[in-house]
Design brief:
The complex is a heterotrimer, with two copies of chain A (223 residues) and one copy of chain B (260 residues).
Chain A (H helix, E strand, L loop, with lengths): L2 H9 L4 H14 L4 E2 H7 L6 H11 L5 E6 L2 E6 L19 H13 L2 E2 H8 L5 H9 L3 E4 L10 E4 L1 H6 L11 H6 L15 H26 L1
Antiparallel strand pairs in A: 1-3, 2-3, 4-6, 5-6
Helix pairs in contact in A: 2-4, 5-7
Chain B lengths: L3 H23 L3 H10 L10 H17 L6 H18 L11 H27 L17 E9 L2 H12 L17 H11 L7 E2 L12 H21 L2 E5 L6 E5 L4
Helix pairs in contact in B: 2-3, 2-5, 3-4, 4-5, 7-8
Classes of the chains: A mainly alpha (223), B mainly alpha (260).
Chain lengths: 223, 260, 223
């Protein structure tokens, strides 16, 4: 592309219908979710992928394929009610152990969470293999370290996790609101133990996490 | 054969023991066992009787002991703690004791059980969701994004002029440096560069300023490079140009300082 | 699926809209093109994949994705005109070759100029590739043909060229006198040859070159 056309397109983006086609083609072509930023980078200058996505999402409503949001990215997926047609495509995933499933749920609902916190919730130690398996599945990742003695590493769920379970974001986890309302996501120190520095920090983290969410929710609603 | 009853009793005992071993193996630690036991109370976990639960647990451990089942250490630790909790809950509070009350400890245990139970429910709900590769599917024939390497050719105005000058002077080309030594002085370089920098609107390799005839012979090249470098530093000092080098041994680039 | 629903579907195929969704999902998710026979085999009994395909094909007309026939089978592909979105460009900057620079300089200083003239000035033949490269860069373009035998094509520089080199017009290129003053011409006239002649010739060239533009120059000066 010459500089001339680039400059031109600064002022004139393709019509929205055309942008919608472009987003459709890009999402259709890849099996991985694509971020809005990447869409914009690949589309002609001046294009507004976010708006085009909204149009496209609407267009695919009720179709055999749907446009779904995965964290900050977007992807096309077949409608879940048609899964029965796809026996051929079904991939046998390694069966996760009960410990694996519970550890995954705890990470999802309590993220960012340390191994010690997972063990505290489950009441047993978490084996290295369980964490490794979840990491290998790319369902969890390392979060930032906690600012507590020993600076323990934390775990969080990934975009792949959201994609796998068809979640738009970690906020859409089933029952999250109820759990929060019931105080079951708070970390409560056992009575008698001094409110350790790390507990205070933890609460702060949790507030952090949900404050950020609050902003996002507002943003989304504005749109 | 000698004592049929005893033998029968032993078999029964052993079977019961095996069942218990299997059960204990089926639990993921004392908290899990407590959660299972709490189910027998058939009430909301928030209204559970921790005292009754503690008694159930202790009875369970007692039974395991009589059957000589080796319980993992953490089951015994929990038993000891629950025995302590039980005494706290039954005895009137000791005003001398500064530790947490039995009620507080019981409440925390109830919280832990409720939280574990909630996480189990969440895990089940999560796994019951539509899953990728099972209920919904990704694109079967992904089209790879090809990475295209595009070469963009570029040239500076200085290149252009030097090229033209080279052509126009080809026939009668006779570098004036021929009748000098293999040394270029700082003054010469400075003189030259003053005339040239006006055209260096963009970053240009300092070496491209070397005069014709000084680039190939190593001796002359060295001298010219050194004097041009010194001259460019001089020009930087005067504020006429800017100079940069991205890395050690990377090309030194200069550019006319934009006039304000 | 239970036998019951299977039997039921023996008598009642899903509505066509539903069949279309099914074909859409299967074509989307299958890793290779699917034949009509295969579609029928995978869809509920009584379904008419061929008709559903026709509907689907129509629905995707003009979209970013199209339903296309591949041999005897069917697949969905991104629209051919959007192929450019499927690449990520990495731009690498390389210096123009010496031949390219010299040819470009000659065209800039002598435009409109024929290839034969360029070769005469350079003293070597100009390769087709060099000219092509400059054309591709959009730095030169074809001028009108010369009214000489063979009516050779001429070359001129473009607006793109002027933009790239930060020139307002080709007249802004420094003349030979300026080049000499700038130290770019380091040769001295061969002994015995009067300096003036050399300059004279150059000037003549320049006059040639700008004859056409003479009016323009005056205009500019008036400004």
């Amino acid at each position: 592309m010459t500089d001339e056309t680039l400059e031109e397109s600064l002022f004139e983006a393709p019509p929205m219908a055309e942008q919608e086609r472009m987003v459709e083609a890009i999402l259709f072509a890849t099996s991985e979710p694509v971020t809005v930023a990447e869409l914009n980078a690949r589309m002609p200058h001046g294009a507004d992928a976010k708006e085009a996505l909204e149009h496209l999402k609407k267009r695919y409503e009720g179709r055999g394929v749907s446009v779904t949001k995965v964290g900050e990215a977007w992807a096309m997926r077949t409608a879940p009610d048609l899964g029965f047609l796809m026996q051929k495509e079904t991939v046998e995933t390694r069966k996760l152990s009960r410990a694996g499933i519970e550890t995954l749920a705890i990470i999802a609902y309590h993220q960012p969470v340390t191994r010690a916190e997972i063990e505290e919730i489950r009441g047993v130690s978490v084996s290295r293999g369980t964490i490794d398996q979840l990491l290998e599945l790319e369902w969890i990742k390392f979060g930032r370290r906690k600012m507590t003695p020993g600076r323990p590493v934390t775990y969080m769920v990934t975009q792949e996790f959201l994609d796998h379970f068809g979640l738009e974001s970690a906020r859409d986890l089933p029952g999250l609101k109820e759990l929060r309302a019931a105080g079951l996501l708070e970390s409560r120190p056992p009575p008698g133990e001094p409110l350790a520095e790390d507990e205070g920090e933890e609460d702060e983290n949790q507030v952090d996490m949900f404050e950020e969410d609050a902003d996002l929710i507002e943003e989304t609603q504005e749109d | 054969m000698m004592d049929g009853d005893t033998q029968f009793g032993e078999v029964e005992e052993r079977l019961a023991a095996e069942a218990l071993i299997v059960d204990v193996d089926g639990y993921e630690g004392p908290l899990d066992l407590l959660l299972m036991l709490s189910r027998t109370q058939k009430v909301d976990l928030r209204k559970i009787s921790v005292l009754a639960l503690a008694e159930q647990y202790l009875a369970f451990v007692e039974r395991a002991k009589t059957l000589r089942i080796e319980l993992a250490a953490d089951y015994l630790v929990m038993a000891a703690w629950l025995a302590f909790l039980k005494s706290r809950l039954l005895l009137p509070p000791d005003p001398e004791d500064e530790g947490p009350s039995g009620e507080e400890l019981a409440a925390h245990l109830a919280f832990q059980l409720e939280r574990l139970s909630a996480m189990r429910d969440c895990a089940a709900k999560l796994m019951a969701r539509d899953q990728k590769g099972r209920d919904f599917f990704v694109r079967g024939i992904p089209e790879d994004v090809t990475r295209v390497r595009k070469v963009r050719y570029t040239a500076t105005l200085l290149d252009l002029m030097q090229g033209y000058a080279r052509l126009k002077t080809k026939e009668d080309f006779r570098p004036y440096t021929m009748d000098r030594d293999h040394v270029m002085t700082l003054e010469q370089a400075l003189e030259r560069m003053r005339g040239l920098i006006g055209y260096a609107g963009e970053w240009t390799d300092l070496l491209s300023y070397l005069p014709e005839g000084w680039e190939s012979d190593p001796k002359r090249r060295r001298s010219a490079t050194a004097s041009h470098f010194a001259a460019s530093l001089e020009l930087v000092k005067n504020g006429a140009i800017q100079i940069r080098q991205s890395d050690i041994f990377a090309p030194i680039q200069i550019k006319a300082r934009p006039r304000d």
